[in-house]
Write a structure and sequence with these properties.
The longest helix has 49 residues, at 2-50. The chain has nine helices and 14 strands. α4 (165-174) packs across α5 and α5 (208-216) runs antiparallel to α6 (224-242). By secondary structure, the chain is α+β, with helices and mostly antiparallel strands. It is 41% helix and 19% strand. The N and C termini lie far apart (100 Å). Strands 11-6-1-2-3-12 form a six-stranded mixed beta sheet, with helices on both faces.
């Protein structure tokens, strides 16, 4: 008799369990939608009411500033402050040690990275004589740096990010280090700066301190050009590591670290749109190259010289739309397979 009662009750128990699981799933879905809506609502409120974005697009002329095709992308100028081996006094304005254009295509989830050697020869806004591009920040801060790069490349520069090396080191440590292949032994010692760089050839797992030395090293035959090549190589490796699955849970800590060490005019919503182009939310479609050019010391000063043809070639290789001088038409994006160049191999 008891067995019959148990058999009769068992379906009811199973039914109740199913109902409870169904309710739990519905509650979780509703809660997830609520939290997502609350998050994006907060982002919208912050970016449009509390801290609305400023329209400070740097461009060589109004045609570029207002061109819809060019402004479909998000162009961010990444600047790294001198790492301490500068000859400038502590109180003097700092020059930028790293100058990189990050160009995001939110629709295609593509990222283009153009590294600009800090010795690139330019005429700064308001100046008559040539100077090195890394002097722009020292003379006029982020505003002049954005304008100088915009004039050189003839693309709009929408935002900037200014970082110091302490933040770089902390971010690398936070993501658990970066795996990278070192092409050759790297050794340099400067007792006055209390600096020793000793990195061996081969595959290395670099913590923040070692990574900082790797991207700052320039005591080889290529000097600053070799440093730019290593910075670009490291940036790609770090991006893959930063947006890996195991680092998803560290996003809040990463943002807090970036907020501490980085000055930027990027708003939160634009940051998220740019991040969407990386591997975390889509396929890895990063293109990278260094600004084409050649060594030029004809004036007695060592420059990296990039004429208009070299600039255009660099942008076309990366698929970044631009406007040529004396033209009003936007150059088409390069749809070829991803390419990289690490030139020059020697001074010319």
């Amino acid at each position: 008799m008891e067995d019959m009662q148990n058999e009769q009750q068992e379906p009811h128990r199973r039914k109740r369990r199913k109902l409870r699981w169904g309710r739990l799933i519905i509650v979780l879905l509703v809660l997830g939608l609520f939290v997502t809506g609350l998050f994006w609502g907060s982002v919208w409120l912050y970016d449009h009411i509390i801290n609305p974005p400023q329209n400070n697009i740097a461009a060589a002329d109004e045609n570029i500033r207002k061109n819809e095709k060019l402004n479909e992308r998000i162009n961010v100028l990444l600047l790294g402050i001198d790492d301490g081996d500068s000859e400038a006094a502590e109180s003097e304005p700092k020059r930028t040690d790293a100058i990189i254009l990050l160009s995001f295509d939110p629709k295609q989830n593509q990222v283009a990275v153009l590294s600009i050697p800090r010795d690139t020869k330019v005429v700064l806004p308001g100046h008559k004589d040539p100077d090195k591009i890394n002097a722009a920040f020292a003379y006029g801060g982020a505003v002049m740096a954005k304008q100088t790069v915009a004039n050189l490349l003839r693309v709009p520069i929408h935002y900037y990010c200014l970082a110091d090396w302490r933040g770089f080191i902390d971010v690398v440590n936070l993501i658990g280090g970066v795996d990278i292949y070192v092409d050759k032994d790297m050794y340099y010692e400067d007792p006055y700066a209390n600096l020793v760089i000793d990195i061996k050839h081969g595959y290395q797992h670099m913590d923040g301190e070692t990574a900082g030395k790797y991207v700052r090293f320039r005591k080889d035959e290529l000097g600053d050009i070799g440093r730019v090549q290593r910075q670009q190589k490291f940036l790609k490796a770090a991006a893959e590591q930063m947006f890996s699955v195991q680092n998803v849970t560290k996003i809040s800590n990463l943002l807090a670290t970036l907020d501490k060490y980085i000055h930027t005019d990027l708003n939160t919503l634009t940051m998220l749109k740019a991040a969407n182009s990386f591997k975390l939310f889509g396929d890895d479609k990063m293109r990278s190259c260094m600004l084409y050019g050649k060594f030029d010391d004809s004036s007695g000063v060592s420059y990296w010289y990039a004429d208009e043809e070299a600039v255009n070639k660099s942008l076309e290789e990366l698929g970044i739309p631009y406007i040529k001088k004396q033209e009003e038409t936007v150059q088409p994006e390069d749809e070829q397979e991803q390419q990289e160049h690490l030139q020059p191999k020697e001074r010319q």
